[in-house]
Write the C-alpha cells for this entry.
Amino acid sequence: MATKNIAGIPVEVNEEGYMSDPSQWSREIAVELAKEENIELTEKHFEILEFIRKEYESGVQLTIRKVGKSGIVDIKGLYELFPGGPLKKSSKIAGIPKPASCV
Amino acid sequence: MKKILILGGGTGGTIMANKLRKTLERDEWDITLVDQDKTHYYQPGFLFIPFGIYTKYDVMKPKSDFFPAGINTIYSHIVRIDGESNKVLLEGGKVLPYDFLIIATGTQIQPEETPGLKEELWYKEIFDFYTIEGSIALREFFKTWQGGRLVVSIAELPFKCPVAPLEFAFLADAYFHEIGMRDKVDITFVTPLPGAFTKPRATKMLGQLLEEKNINVISEFYIERVDNKSKKIISYDQQEVPFDVLTIVPVNMGSDMIGRSGLGDDLNFVPTDKYTLRSEKFENVFVLGDASNIPTSKAGSVVHFAADVLYENLMSAIEGRPLLAKFDGHSNCYIETGFGKGSIIDFNYETEPLPGTFPLPGIGPFGLLQNTKMNHYGKVLFRWIYWHILLRGKELPIESEMSMAGKKL
Ligand SMILES: Cc1cc2nc3c(=O)[nH]c(=O)nc-3n(C[C@H](O)[C@H](O)[C@H](O)COP(=O)(O)OP(=O)(O)OC[C@H]3O[C@@H](n4cnc5c(N)ncnc54)[C@H](O)[C@@H]3O)c2cc1C
C-alpha cells in the first residue's frame, strides 16, 4: 500500500497501482491514471468507466463479455479504447480493484 | 401433498433427490425430478476418452439407477419456470406446480457463441472434450493423426472444471510420448487468463509443470473467432494462433430455459446467494451446482459440498426457520498430470489453493499442489466414489466446510 499524488490529491494505491478506495475516484484522477497507460480519455471512455464502477458497486463479477453487452461498445470497441487488457486497464482507470477471476 | 420439484437430474439433482427422499415423509411430500436426458454421464471421464483410457461405456449409466424409490421422474425438456406463480412448464404443455423448487440444470457448451467455431472443421479438425460426442470424435481423430500443432484453448470464463483443459494438455503430452510421436506434436495452451490458472500459487505450480512438459502457453488471449480457411484462432486484439487441430472449451452457459424464465445473468447463470444458495429472486427457489452464479468452481466436488448446505437450508425454509447454514465455496479437484501422476487443490471463497497434505494433516495421503502418484490414484478412485457414494447423497470422509488443517501458508 502506498500513497500517490494524483491530480494533486493524495490517493491510496496498491503495489500494482490500483486504487484502494474507489470513493476517492474523480474524473481528474481518471485522466491522470489513463495517461500512465498512454490513453487519452474521451466521453466514450468515461461512459465505460461509469458503467463498470456501477457494476462493481452492485457486486457483479465483471467480464469483458459483460462490458461488451453494456450497449456502450462491443468487445472489439472496448479493445480499441483500452488496448492490451481492456478489463484490467479500465478497472485501474475507474479506480476499482483489479478484476479477479474466481473459479 | 406439498411438492418439491427438482429441475435437472445430473450430479446435483440426483444428490438432492436422494437426500430429500431419505428424510421427508412420503405422505406429506411429493418429490418430482425432471430431466431431458435418460443417461447420466460421468463428465470427468470425458477427458480420458480422446486418449483411449476410457471408452463411452465407462462414463454412461442410466439416470434411473441413481434415483431413489418413491420419487416421480419425468423425462422431458423444461421450457420455462414461472417463479411468480410457482409453476414449471414442460415441453408438450405439461405444467408442474411446486412449493419449493431446486434448480440444478448445470451448464452446457455453446460453440455457436464463437463465430467460425461450429463450421466446416467442427468435429473434423476442431473438437470439444466437454461432451460425449466431442470426446469420441476426438478419439477417432487421434487414432490416425500424424502430428502437427495441437492447440488447447478456452473461449470464455467461467467454465466448468477449471482444471480440465490443463489436464487435457498434460494427458495429450503423455499420450503422444507413449505412442512415440511427441516430437511431431507441438502443444500450445491458449487462455484468456493471465496464467495457467486463476489463483497465484496454483498458477505457479501448474505453470511450471507446463514448462517442464514443453507445453507453450499463450495467456490473455480472448478469442473472437475461428478462421476455418487459414486454420487460425483470432483474438479481439488481432493476435493469431495457427492450429492443425483445435481442442477447445467453448463458451459455457446455463440452460436457455433459465434465460427464457428471466432468471439468468448474461450467461444464463442464476443469481444466487453464495452463502444460503437461495435464488436472489424467489424465496422458495434454491440453486445447486453449475447452474448458479456463485463465485467458486463449477465442479462435482463443489456440488457435493454445497448439497449439504442446501439441504439444511431447505429444511429450515420448509419449517419457516431462518437459513443458518452457510456455504464457504469449498472446492476440491484432482488434477491429472499424465504419466500416472496427479495433483490436488482444495480451496474456498476466501482461501486460495495452498500446498500441504489432504485430508489428514501431515499424513495425506494426498499432497496438495504436489505432483504425486497417490494423487493420480485419487482421481482414478473418484469415478468409483462418484457412482457409488457421491450421487447417492451419502457422506464422504471429507467435511463440507474447507479445513485449514494440513495446509501451509
Ligand atoms: C471434461 C470435464 C471434466 C470434469 N472433471 C471434474 C473433476 O475432475 N472433478 C469434479 O469435481 N468435477 C469435474 N467436472 C465437472 C462436473 O462434472 C460438473 O460440475 C457437475 O456434473 C455439475 O453438476 P450439476 O448437477 O450442476 O449439473 P449436471 O450434472 O451437468 O446436470 C444438469 C442436468 O440438467 C439437465 N438439463 C439442463 N437443462 C435442461 C432442460 N432445459 N430441461 C431438462 N433437463 C435439463 C441436463 O440434462 C443434465 O442432466 C468435469 C466436467 C467436465 C465437462
Summary: The mean pLDDT of chain A is 91. Chain A has one domain: 2-93. Residues 43-57 of chain A form the longest helix (15 residues).
